[in-house]
Every structure is written in structure tokens, then in C-alpha cells.
């Protein structure tokens, strides 16, 4: 009797232990490299990620470089109990293939996170469904090149001019000493995107200029909105290291700061929408569609919504009750502000530390826009300046502002010959910053192999553009044409900074316009002189985006 009892007890313990490990411990995907120590604990890779972040205040690139240690361009991370491993793809070519050509196998990730918490009805927080396609179609004309040139460009230009005036004031007060300009880009970018979205001015840069000139702190509505927009970075930090995302989201939405910022945001958006709705009511007389009255993205969408309701014989909708419109407008603000301001911070750091490239850029701009004054906005956005294009691409490559883009496998599939189950989160590298470990062509997807053959059959790491990737070199984005002339080549390297395919960044054209205008006006107005090493760190602080820890400039009128 005792022996069967003992055997039964041992078997029960073994069974419970096996069940416990299967439920709570990471379950690696076969064949894909991973950290063995992380696989032996419930918290998986979270402790190593936390340790890396504590030391470097970033983790995406350092953790991603594990691929070099593994000798594999694909590896896996264990982020949460009860969930599949994250698959990390650190090969820009294969990342581009997934983004551009494998949309039937991979969709936008909608795992619980910042966007699902803050703006859940925006397109960025939804899967690619018919409803998503309808919502995207509603907004597509707000990114139409003609609309951007006709309506949006002048708002960005005004904000860029205000930024140069702020820097003139800072330069006068600095006595040649370096000044911290990180917040200046944030103010200018929010000025630009807020006016482009809502048609109202926040005048954040102007308020900062008055503070510099008078030494007195100025309280404005714009500063309240700036704090609200910046709060999204706090949300990003809250998600990092969350063992149970659903619990984190529940707790976060009951946080006093979250409630406060939601109230500020909702009050401001309601006021703007109601004012615009009242303004467009006067246009609904059937004599015109009112297009000439559009002053911003909100006007375009709201006017069309009201006209559609009128033509259908329906009551004019209350825009404050349209959650999809509200969230999409806020997506314009969040995505268009932080990404641009962060990339601009990296830009001036690269210019400060690459004086030759800075001189080449300024000379190219002055050749394109001769004269003693800054170019007008119409000339600026219509004139092609190849070295400016190359500088923007190289800044995007080196900065890694958004270091990863996430997709979810929608079916059982394969990457590099490894089986990827449906529902797996796949984190794709967005920049070409190092040569990934090589793999045999026969393990790549058919679409990846076909694209290589179509492009000439030369692997990207063998091209001149892919050498010395640790250096800032806009020249890598040029090639010789058939007549031996240097021409800008946007395809010199894989550039996934804006994602790609069906779910590529909706605001790419807007972001590139912002970068083009801001970079042109600041570079033509100032020389960015070298700063002391103690103010020149290239360490990053990674929240929602990867931001430089320091951004100091020593300015001189150009």
C-alpha cells in the first residue's frame, strides 16, 4: 500500500511541476536562439531588460545586438507570463520584406499598450479590418501632397521661423556658451502640428522667447497642452516591465495623473470641435462645399462629415461624440510632435559633431536658395536639394527614433525557416545600423529572394553605402547615374523608419515636410559649433521613442 502511495505522490508532484512550468515559465519557440537563463525564470527577460535600461536608459538596440552574439538575425525574448515569446528580427532586409510584402501574414500589433490606453479608437490602435480601412480612407486626403502644400506647410514654416527667433534670443543671452535646446524642438514641433491639426496657435516658442528675454516665467494654455502631450511618455514607461498588461492598463486608467490629463485633453478638444462645427454650420447652404475655408486637418474631415450628413438628410452630428474623430486628431498631435522633435534633436547633434557635413548642407541650401533672406515656404517645399534629402535619410538611419516596429503574425508562418505560430509578436528593426549575421538565401522568404533578384542580386551589406555604418555620412545616399553624375538614392539602404506597406506610417509625408522645413531654416540661420564633451553625450533615454539624453548647442549666426 505504501509503495503505490509514494509512487502516486511522486507522479502527482511531477505532474504539478510540469503543469506549473508550462503555465508560468517561458516556452521557447523551437530553433530560434534565446537566453537560457531567462528561459529558467517566470519573469523571463524582464530582469535583464531592466538592468540594461538602468545602466544605459535604453534597451532596444542593446538587446537587439544579442543577434550578433547568437550569430543569428532572429532571436526571441520572454516578456510576459502566459504569453508567447517576442520574436526579434534584426535584419533590415527581412524586416522590409515583412512590412512591405507579407501583409497577409503579419498585421499591426494591437497588444495592450500606450495607444490602446490613450487613443483606442485611432487607426494606430486597430487591426487591419474593413472598419480600419474605412477610417483610414476618411483621413487619407489630410496627407494628400496638395493639401499639405496648400494648407499645412505654412503652419510648419511659421513655427520654424519662431524657433529661429527663439534661438536668436538664446544666442544673445548665452555669451557664446552652450544652451540646452531639447525642449525648444518640442515646443516648435507642437506649435507646428497643433496649428496644422486644429487651426489654432499655441505660440509655445514665442512664450519661451519672452521668458528668455524677460527672465519671467509665462503661463500659457500651450504649456498645459504640452504637458498633456508629454504625458504619453510616462505611459510608455509604465508599460515597460509590466508582467500583466491588462492589470497595468486597469491601474493606469485610475491613476490621478491619467485622469487629470484626460480631463485637460477632453476639455480642449471639445472646445475646438464645437467652435469649428459652429463655423461650418454657416457654410451648409448648398452653394459651396466650403473647401476654400479649410485651415487645418480637422476642418477638412469635420466639414466633409457635416456635408455628408446634410446630403443624406440626417442631423448634423455632434463632433464631440465622435470618438474615432477625436482619437485620430489626437494621433496627429502625438505622432506628429514627438517623433519630429526627437529626430531634430538627433539632427543637430550629428551636425555639431560632423562639421564637414554641416558645411556641405549649408552650402547646398544656400546654392538652392540664393540671397540674403530665408526662402519662402513655396520655394522651400518645391525645390529639390539632394544633399538635404541625404542628410534627412542619414539622420533617420542613425537616430533610430522609433527603434522597432511591431507586427503580429495572423497565421502560422515562417521567418528564416523558423516556424512562427499565429498570434506571435514580431519586433522588426527599423534602421540599418550594423551588419546582421548572414543566413543562406534558401531560408529567406520567396518574396525576399525575388526582391533581391529584381534589384540586381547584390546583398545590401556588400554595397558601398553599407560600409562604416557607425559613422554619420549623408554621402552614402548618393549613387552615380548612367552619365556619371551623383544623384540622391533613397533606396541606397533599407530604411524602415516609417514602417511600410499597408500599415506604414500614415503621417510620413507630414513628418518629412516638418523635417525639411525645420532643418532648412535652422541650418541657414545658424552654425552649430562644437560643444564640450561633458555636454555632448550620445546616450539615449528610451521612452516611447529613443531621445538623446543631452542636446546642447553653441550657436553662431550663419
What do you see in this structure?
With 558 residues, the protein is α+β, with helices and mostly antiparallel strands. It contains 21 helices and 14 strands. It has a 5-stranded mixed sheet. A hairpin with a 5-residue loop joins strand 9 (478-480) and strand 10 (486-488). Helix 9 (145-174) runs parallel beside helix 21 (508-525) and helix 12 packs across helix 14 (256-281). The longest helix is centred in the middle third of the chain and has 31 residues, at 323-353. The chain is globular and about 90 Å long. The model has no long low-confidence stretch (mean pLDDT 88).
List keywords for this structure.
558 residues, alpha+beta, three-stranded antiparallel beta sheet, 21 helices, 14 strands, 52% helix, 9% strand, globular
Class from helix and strand fractions = alpha+beta
**Span from first to last CA?**
95 Å
Q: Biggest β-sheet, characterized?
A: 5 strands, mixed
Taking strands numbered 1, 2, ... along the chain, how are they ordered across the largest sheet? 1-2-8-5-3
Total strands: 14
Shape: globular
Oligomer: single chain
Radius of gyration: 26 Å
Q: Proportion of β residues?
A: 5-15%
Bin the helical content: 40-55%
Uncertain residue ranges: none
Please state the average pLDDT score.
88
Tally of alpha and pi helices: 21
Amino acid at each position: 500500500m505504501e509503495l503505490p502511495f509514494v509512487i502516486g505522490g511522486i507522479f502527482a508532484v511531477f505532474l504539478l511541476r510540469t503543469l506549473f512550468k508550462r503555465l508560468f515559465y517561458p516556452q521557447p519557440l523551437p530553433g530560434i536562439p534565446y537566453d537560457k537563463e531567462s528561459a529558467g525564470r517566470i519573469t523571463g527577460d524582464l530582469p535583464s531588460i531592466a538592468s540594461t535600461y538602468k545602466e544605459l536608459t535604453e534597451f532596444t538596440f542593446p538587446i537587439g545586438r544579442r543577434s550578433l552574439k547568437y550569430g543569428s538575425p532572429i532571436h526571441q525574448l520572454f516578456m510576459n507570463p502566459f504569453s508567447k515569446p517576442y520574436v526579434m528580427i534584426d535584419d533590415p532586409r527581412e524586416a522590409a520584406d515583412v512590412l512591405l510584402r507579407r501583409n497577409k501574414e503579419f498585421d499591426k500589433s494591437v497588444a495592450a499598450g500606450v495607444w490602446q490606453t490613450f487613443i483606442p479608437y485611432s487607426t494606430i490602435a486597430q487591426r487591419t479590418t474593413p472598419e480600419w480601412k474605412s477610417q483610414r480612407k476618411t483621413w487619407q486626403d489630410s496627407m494628400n501632397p496638395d493639401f499639405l502644400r496648400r494648407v499645412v506647410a505654412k503652419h510648419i514654416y511659421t513655427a520654424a521661423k519662431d524657433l529661429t527667433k527663439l534661438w536668436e534670443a538664446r544666442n544673445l543671452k548665452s555669451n557664446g556658451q552652450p544652451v540646452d535646446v531639447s525642449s525648444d524642438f518640442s515646443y516648435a514641433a507642437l506649435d507646428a502640428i497643433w496649428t496644422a491639426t486644429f487651426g489654432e496657435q499655441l505660440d509655445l516658442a514665442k512664450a519661451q522667447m519672452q521668458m528668455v528675454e524677460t527672465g519671467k516665467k509665462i503661463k500659457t494654455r500651450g504649456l498645459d497642452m504640452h504637458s498633456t502631450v508629454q504625458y504619453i511618455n510616462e505611459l510608455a514607461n509604465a508599460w515597460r516591465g509590466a508582467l500583466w498588461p491588462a492589470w497595468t492598463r486597469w491601474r493606469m486608467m485610475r491613476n490621478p495623473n491619467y485622469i487629470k490629463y484626460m480631463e485637460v485633453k477632453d476639455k480642449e478638444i471639445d472646445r475646438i470641435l464645437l467652435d469649428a462645427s459652429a463655423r461650418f454650420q454657416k457654410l451648409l447652404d448648398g452653394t459651396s462645399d466650403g473647401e476654400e475655408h479649410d485651415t487645418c486637418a480637422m476642418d477638412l474631415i469635420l466639414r466633409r462629415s457635416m456635408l455628408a450628413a446634410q446630403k443624406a438628410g440626417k442631423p448634423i452630428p455632434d463632433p464631440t461624440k465622435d470618438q474615432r474623430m477625436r482619437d485620430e486628431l489626437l494621433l496627429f498631435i502625438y505622432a506628429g510632435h514627438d517623433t519630429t522633435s526627437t529626430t531634430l534633436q538627433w539632427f543637430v547633434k550629428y551636425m555639431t559633431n560632423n562639421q564637414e557635413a554641416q558645411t556641405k548642407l549649408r552650402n547646398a541650401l544656400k546654392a538652392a536658395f540664393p540671397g540674403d533672406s530665408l526662402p519662402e515656404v513655396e520655394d522651400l517645399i518645391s525645390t529639390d536639394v539632394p544633399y538635404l534629402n541625404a542628410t534627412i535619410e542619414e539622420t533617420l538611419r542613425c537616430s533610430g527614433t522609433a527603434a522597432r516596429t511591431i507586427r503580429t503574425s495572423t497565421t502560422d508562418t515562417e521567418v528564416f525557416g523558423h516556424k512562427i505560430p499565429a498570434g506571435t509578436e514580431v519586433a522588426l528593426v527599423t534602421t540599418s545600423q550594423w551588419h546582421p549575421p548572414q543566413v543562406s538565401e534558401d531560408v529567406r522568404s520567396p518574396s525576399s529572394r525575388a526582391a533581391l533578384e529584381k534589384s540586381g542580386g547584390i546583398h545590401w551589406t556588400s554595397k558601398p553605402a553599407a560600409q562604416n555604418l557607425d559613422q554619420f555620412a549623408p554621402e552614402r545616399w548618393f549613387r552615380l547615374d548612367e552619365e556619371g553624375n551623383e544623384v540622391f538614392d533613397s533606396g541606397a539602404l533599407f530604411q524602415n523608419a516609417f514602417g511600410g506597406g499597408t500599415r506604414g506610417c500614415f503621417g510620413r509625408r507630414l513628418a518629412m515636410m516638418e523635417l525639411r522645413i525645420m532643418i532648412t531654416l535652422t541650418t541657414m540661420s545658424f552654425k552649430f559649433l562644437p560643444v564640450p564633451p561633458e555636454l555632448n553625450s550620445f546616450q539615449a533615454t528610451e521612452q516611447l521613442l529613443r531621445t538623446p539624453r543631452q542636446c546642447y548647442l553653441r550657436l553662431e549666426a550663419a
